[in-house]
Amino acid sequence: VQLVESGGGLVHTGSSLTLACAVSGVSLRSYPMGWWRQGPGKERTLVARMSRSSGFDYSDSVKGRFTISRDNTKNTIYLQMNNLKPNDTAIYYCNGGITAPLWSWGQGTQVTVSS
Q: What is the bridge-based pairing of β-strands 76-81 and 90-96?
């Protein structure tokens, strides 16, 4: 399985970004999916997850600001991030699973939010 994240960048506080994760090697419709992030000096944590039936769950730190979605026809998942804050600065990764990752990690995409 290959995971390729994209869409990160350097933005100001309050800005929006949409991340994408292209998945190859498996059919996305068969798996729950999630977005993780790893901030400077911090452990990688799950911030958004989506079941196969499109049930959603978010960490308290991003709830109300981030939205996870999927396009099974493109085998791609997305993370819409609004009202970004400096604490959102991290490398963002996608993976299968909703509690622990199923596959090897991709390279991630860097999101930097300046104050």
A: unpaired
| Token pair recorded at residue 98 | 């909703």
Task: Give every CB contact of residue 65 below 8 A, 6+ residues apart in sequence.
Answer: 81, 82, 83, 84
CA dist 38 and 10 (Å) reads: 16
Could you tell me if 45 and 62 are in contact, meaning their C-beta atoms sit under 8 angstroms apart? no
How confident is the model over 30-82, as pLDDT tens digits? 999 999 999 999 999 999 999 888 789 999 999 999 999 999 999 999 999 99
- Sign of the torsion formed by the C-alpha atoms of 32, 62, 100 and 37: positive
Chain centroid offset of residue 69 CA: 10
